[in-house]
Every structure is written in C-alpha cells, then in structure tokens.
Amino acid sequence: MDNIDISKIPASTNPRVPVPSHPFRHAVPVQLRFNDIDMLGHLNNAVYMTLFDLGKAHYFPEVMPEVVNLEHINIVVVNINCNFFAPAYIKERLAVLTRVDSISVHSFTMEQRVVNVDTGEVKCAAHVVMAGFDPATATGLPIQQEWIDGLCRYEGRDLRVKK
User: Of 2, 80, 85, 94, which has the most beta carbons under 10 Å away?
Assistant: First the structure.
C-alpha cells in the first residue's frame, strides 16, 4: 500500500467519534489479510490490537530515530481502551493514525485510530498508556528526557502535564 498523505484523509462525520484535541501527524497504511476477517465478513476485534502495535512500531522509530532502538525498548503498554465505531472490511483502504497526547513523569498517553483513508470513517479509536520500564529489573522508570524532547518536538507542542 502506498504512503498515506494524512492531510487528504477526510474528517470523520460520525457524531459519536470524538474530535481529536490536536491533529494527527502520523499515519501507517495497513494491509488486511484473509485471516483477519471474521465469520461476519468484517475485521475481527482482536486484530485491531495488532494494527495499533503496527502503528506504534512505525511511529517511534520515525519520530525519534536517534532515540529509539527496538531491540532495547524502555517503554511498555500498561493500558489500552478501545471504542469501536464501525466495521472494517477487507477491501477498504485503512490506516492507523497515531499521536501522543500528554507526558507525565512515568508514563505518556497516546491516541490511535484505524480509519478508512478514502472516507475518513473511524473504525476504532484507542487510548493507550505507555510507561517507562527497565527490562533488566522488570521495574518502572521515569520517561527519559530524550523521549520527552523527541515526542514534544515531533508533535509540535509541549506535551508535559502541568502540575
């Protein structure tokens, strides 16, 4: 699938889909496979998690190539909440949109959406919390300053939660 020009994705017209507080700047096209489709002919709900992981796997190295080393990752997903708005079908052109909303000392929140790139229809939206993590000790860590700086720079605003 070709790269996605995020500026050409229409806005959602579904009144149940919250308007994003800030624009999305990152999109990854996805290709659905036959085994992603359930007996009703639409994308199985469990597949959305893998699509969101794909979005994160592209977002971080593209946003902060000098910081992110996927072999030595120091952040982990600690919470995901999904809202399903419309079924997705195998022949639709879909993309995962990803952005960071805010950063606190030990975690940051993201929003991700699976959207039809032709219509702007939001299929599913997720709010994700990721936390700093030390894999050697299996304990939490503060978010490193280089992550904070890189995410703020890419998103074009100060993401740090004000106390």
Answer: 94
